Recover the amino acids of this structure.
């Protein structure tokens, strides 16, 4: 049985490499093929000068890694986050190679990212970053070369900017250069829910294996972006008890019956801030979560929901959003 040996499990590239080593030993992979698959096909670093809204010129660092294009064009998302590293992009690109191969999709593995904080940038600044990033990589993008997709900190609007920029450079509309674009521009129905729905399918399989029931299963969602929020909504509708949500900054409880309201509230904020309907503490009740580290779990006290009247009062005093309509 192959064992995992990683000097630093919290370095995503070393972690991915350790798992590749274990799989290669288990498969008795030929030495030359092992070396060929171990390293990326190419790594591209771009420096993106962008004029911010305040008139200051800032240079952002972006990456695109092609791990393998043997089975077809590179396929992988683009993430915008302040903690993006080249090691992380390498690991994610290699995982895209393995995922596409396992399910027999004719794509290779790729991944990209830009070091920036989308929560602190305006839409105009994000558009300028995206379009310049695309222009710098124009010779590597294309339906037959590399097909980006949304990821952490990016969405269908980002893909629309990439598609438009690429189309302007090649002098004709090329919708196939990205996936995850708006439906009006040729996107696929159900794409936004797809990853969260996949999480639901996996949980359903796990419950069947352990002979558990949806109504008796409590769930905490770690990460509340597109995937986490959609998974929470779908699992709530399927009968799971959503008892808490969290991201890398905060965590707090969500009563299962109020999950749709939580999604409505979070969709109008760029970070998880305490919603107005959550006020009083419950003693000796905790939710454990930690971004990318379960070994060092951060414990956060869970809070109890107020009465209907206090909830209504909190909503009436807020002018930043309207109540979630009943489903």
């Amino acid at each position: 049985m192959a064992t995992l040996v990683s000097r630093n499990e919290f370095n995503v590239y070393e972690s991915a490499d350790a798992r590749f080593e274990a799989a290669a030993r288990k498969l008795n992979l030929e030495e030359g093929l092992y070396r060929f698959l171990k390293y990326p096909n190419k790594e591209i670093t771009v420096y993106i000068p962008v004029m911010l809204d305040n008139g200051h010129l800032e240079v952002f660092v972006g990456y695109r890694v092609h791990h393998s294009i043997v089975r077809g064009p590179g396929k992988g998302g683009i993430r915008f986050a302040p903690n993006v590293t080249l090691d992380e992009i390498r690991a994610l690109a290699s995982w895209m190679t393995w995922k596409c191969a396992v399910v027999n999709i004719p794509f290779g593995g790729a991944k990209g990212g830009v070091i920036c904080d989308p929560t602190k940038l305006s839409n105009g600044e994000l558009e300028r970053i995206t379009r310049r990033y695309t222009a710098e990589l124009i010779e590597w993008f294309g339906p037959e070369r590399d097909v980006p997709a949304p990821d952490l900190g990016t969405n269908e609007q980002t893909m629309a900017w990439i598609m438009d920029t690429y189309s302007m450079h090649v002098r004709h509309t090329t919708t196939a250069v990205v996936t995850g674009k708006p439906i009006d521009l040729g996107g696929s129905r159900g794409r936004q829910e797809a990853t969260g729905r996949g999480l639901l399918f996996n949980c359903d399989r796990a419950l069947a294996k352990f002979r558990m029931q949806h109504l008796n299963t409590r769930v905490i969602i770690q990460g509340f972006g597109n995937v986490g929020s959609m998974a929470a909504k779908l699992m709530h509708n399927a009968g799971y008890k959503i008892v808490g949500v969290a991201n890398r900054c905060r965590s707090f409880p969500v009563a299962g019956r109020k999950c749709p309201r939580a999604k409505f509230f979070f969709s109008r904020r760029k970070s998880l801030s305490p919603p107005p309907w959550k006020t009083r503490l419950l003693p000796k009740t905790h939710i454990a979560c930690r971004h990318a580290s379960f070994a060092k779990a951060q414990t956060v006290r869970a809070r109890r929901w107020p009465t209907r009247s206090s909830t209504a009062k909190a909503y009436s005093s807020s002018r930043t959003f309207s109540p979630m309509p009943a489903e």
About this structure: Residues 191-209 form the longest helix (19 residues).
